[in-house]
Design a protein that fits this description.
The structure is a homodimer. The first copy, chain A, is an alpha/beta fold. Helices cover 46% and strands 16% of the residues of chain A. The first copy, chain A, has a 6-stranded parallel beta sheet, sandwiched between helices. In chain A, α7 (130-138) links the parallel β3 and β4 (143-146). At the A-B interface, α4, α5, β2, α6 and α12 of A face α4, α5, β2, α6 and α12 of B. The structure holds a DNA duplex.
DNA sequence: CTGAAAGCGCTTACAG
DNA sequence: CTGAAAGCGCTTACAG
C-alpha cells in the first residue's frame, strides 16, 4: 500500500501544510505536531512521492547518463563500466539518482527521452554526433561530455590526455631499445584513438625514428576480436619485418592481438613487447600482465558528476576542457 | 527554453484539452486542430513533461535496477555488466527507462529511493539480504530477483542452473581422465557459488570419485585477486598433491588462479586443466582460452525485463523460479 | 506556529 | 469534435 500526504496529515491530526513542513524539513512546526507526524510516517512507512515533489520543485534530482556506442559491449565495456561505477557512486553521494541509457543508433532520441523526463543534467559518454550536442544545447539543460570529441568551444568535456600518453608510450618503448614499431590503432574518428596514435607517431618522430620503422594498421572497431583478427592477418609482416613492439590504442586491441602472438609461440616480452592503453582490469590479470597507459576513469567519473552538479547549481565552471593526465604502468609484457 | 502544454495550446489556438489529445494521441481531434497543434509542437520542439504525465498516470515508465555488491567491480563486473546491457536493451524495447543504483551497504535505502521515485517495477540483482525483499514486499510494487538467492516461495527469481552446471563440469573433466580435483570456490553465502560447488561435488561422487581426491579451498571474494592469492598460497599442495584439475566457481577466480599457474611455468592444459564458470568476455580472450560453463546473461536480462513487464501489467506469471540451462564451452585450458 | 489556497504540467471524464 | 473543470501529490507564499 502506498499513502499520500493527505492521509498522513489527517491521521496525525494536522493539515497537509504542516505535514509537508515536517516531512520535507522546510518551515516551522511545533514539537508536538512534528512528533505526531513523524510517528505516523514511521508507522505507515510513508514514502513521499518524488514525482510530485519534482513537479513543484521543477527539479527531479535525477541525472541522465547516455553511452553512445554502436556495438556491444557498452555497459559491459571494461572502460565504460568503470566510468559508470564511478558516476553512480559520485551521484549517490550528491543525492542524485541516475537514468542510464545506451544509444546504438547514435541518434537524438535518447537525449529526447532524458529531456522529457526532465533530468537535472546530462552526461554524454563516448563518441557522439555533433547534432546530438546541438540538439541538447537548444534546451537549457546542463550537460557535459566524457571521453568524446568535439570542436565546439562551448562544450564542457572531460578527456584523458591521450596525445601525451601516446608520446610517453613511444618514449618508454624507445628507451627500452626498440627500433621498429608496429601499431594497431582503433577507429580514427574517435578522438582517443586518433590522438593516441598521433601522440605515439610524434613521440617517435621526435626521437628520430624514421617513418619507415613504423607500421600502422587501422582497426574498424576497438575490441578483442579485431585485435586478434588484425594481428593474425599481419603476422608474417610483423615477424618477418623485424618489429619488436606492438603498441595499440587500447587494451582490448592489445589483449586480442597478444593472444595471437602467444598462440603462435611468440615470447612476450622477449621477442615482442606489447603495450596497450586504458588499464582495464584484465590488463593486469593477463599473463603476461599488460604494460599500458592508465586512464583514471574513477576520477573522471567523480569529476564529471561534481562538475555537472556545479552546472546544475549555476556555479561558475572554470574550464571547458578538463584533461586527465595519463600515466605509464609498466608490467610484464614489455 | 522549455514550453508547457498551455503555451502550445494557445499558440495553436485550441484548448489545453485538445492539445493534450493530439499530443498524447488519446481522444478525438479534428484534422485541422491536429495539424495546427502538431505544427507548433514541431516548431517549438516541444517535449511533453514526463513528470507531469507520470503524476496523473500513476505510472512513470521507469524501472529500477539495483545491484547489490559490497565490492567493486559492480557495474564493471564482467557478468553484471552484460546483464545490465541486456536489461537496458530490453527495457528500451518495451518503452521503459531505467534508474540504476548500486548498493554496497546491502541496505534497504536504495530500495527506498526507488520506491520514492515511484518506479513501475524493480529488478534486484545479486546477493541481497532477506530484509530487503521483505521491505519491498510491503509496498505493492512489482519486483523480481536476478542471480540472487532466496528461500521465500513468493519471490519471482531468475537464476542459472548452477547445480547442473557444476555436475556437468565434473562429468566433463572426469571424462577427460582426470582423477584428482582442486577447487577454489567463491563465497558460499552466495547461491551461485554454493550450488556450483555442490553440483561439482555431487557430480564427482556419482562418478565414484572418493572425497579424498577432491580438495576445496574457499575464497572470501570472487575476484581475480583472490583467485591469484589462493592459488599462490596453495601452490605446493596443488603441484605436490597430484592434482591435474583446477575448477573454480567463476571465471574471475579461474583467470586469477591460472595466471599464477602460468607464471610458475605450469603448462595449461598439459599439466593442469583449468575450468571456470560464467563465460565472461575475457574467458575466451585469455591465452589459453578458458573452458567454462556458460550462463546466458543476455537471455536472462531480456527475460527479467519481459517478466517484470508482465508483472507490471498484472498478467499472470507462470512460475516463480526461472532457471536457465548452463552449457559447457570447451576451449583451450582443458 | 498553522491551515486554506493556489499552483507545478499534465490527462480525463463530462457536458455541450 | 471541443473546452471547462477537477484532480494527480506535493510545496510554498500568505494571512491569521
Amino acid at each position: 500500500m502506498t499513502y499520500n500526504i493527505k492521509e498522513i496529515a489527517s491521521l496525525a491530526g494536522v493539515s497537509k501544510s504542516t505535514a509537508s513542513r515536517v516531512i520535507s524539513g522546510n518551515g516551522y512546526a511545533s514539537p508536538e505536531a512534528r512528533a505526531r507526524v513523524l510517528e505516523v510516517v514511521e508507522q505507515l512507512q510513508y514514502k513521499p512521492n518524488a514525482v510530485a515533489r519534482a513537479m513543484v520543485a521543477k527539479r527531479t534530482n535525477n541525472i541522465g547518463v547516455i553511452v553512445f556506442r554502436e556495438q556491444q559491449p557498452i555497459v559491459s565495456h571494461p572502460l565504460y563500466g568503470k566510468l559508470i561505477d564511478a558516476i553512480l557512486e559520485a551521484a549517490e553521494g550528491l543525492g542524485y539518482s541516475v537514468l542510464l541509457k545506451t544509444d546504438r543508433e547514435m541518434s537524438v532520441r535518447s537525449a529526447d527521452h532524458m529531456l522529457e523526463r526532465r533530468v537535472d543534467g546530462l552526461i554524454l559518454i563516448s563518441r557522439l554526433r555533433k547534432n546530438v550536442v546541438d540538439h541538447v544545447k537548444k534546451y537549457n539543460l546542463p550537460y557535459l561530455m566524457v571521453n568524446g570529441s568535439t570542436d565546439d568551444p562551448d562544450v564542457i568535456h572531460l578527456v584523458s590526455n591521450d596525445e601525451e600518453g601516446g608520446a610517453k608510450a613511444a618514449a618508454y618503448l624507445h628507451g627500452l631499445g626498440h627500433r621498429r614499431f608496429f601499431v594497431i590503432a582503433g577507429p580514427q574518428e574517435h578522438r582517443s584513438h586518433h590522438l593516441r596514435l598521433e601522440g605515439f607517431k610524434q613521440g617517435l618522430q621526435r626521437l628520430g625514428v624514421p617513418a619507415s620503422d613504423l607500421t600502422v594498421v587501422l582497426s574498424p572497431e576497438s575490441n578483442l576480436e579485431q585485435g586478434a583478427r588484425l594481428m593474425a592477418e599481419h603476422f608474417e609482416t610483423f615477424i618477418g619485418g623485424g618489429y619488436t613492439v606492438l603498441f595499440t590504442t587500447n587494451d582490448m586491441l592489445a589483449l586480442g592481438a597478444m593472444k595471437v602472438l602467444l598462440q603462435r609461440s611468440v615470447r612476450v616480452p622477449e621477442q615482442a613487447a606489447v603495450m596497450g592503453f586504458d588499464d582495464i582490469d584484465f590488463a593486469a590479470a593477463y599473463s603476461p600482465a599488460l604494460t599500458t597507459v592508465k586512464v583514471d576513469t574513477n576520477r573522471m567519473g567523480h569529476d564529471a558528476v561534481a562538475l555537472l552538479d556545479r552546472l546544475i547549481h549555476q556555479e561558475e565552471v572554470l574550464s571547458k576542457k578538463n584533461e586527465f593526465a595519463s600515466e605509464i604502468l609498466i608490467r610484464e609484457s614489455t
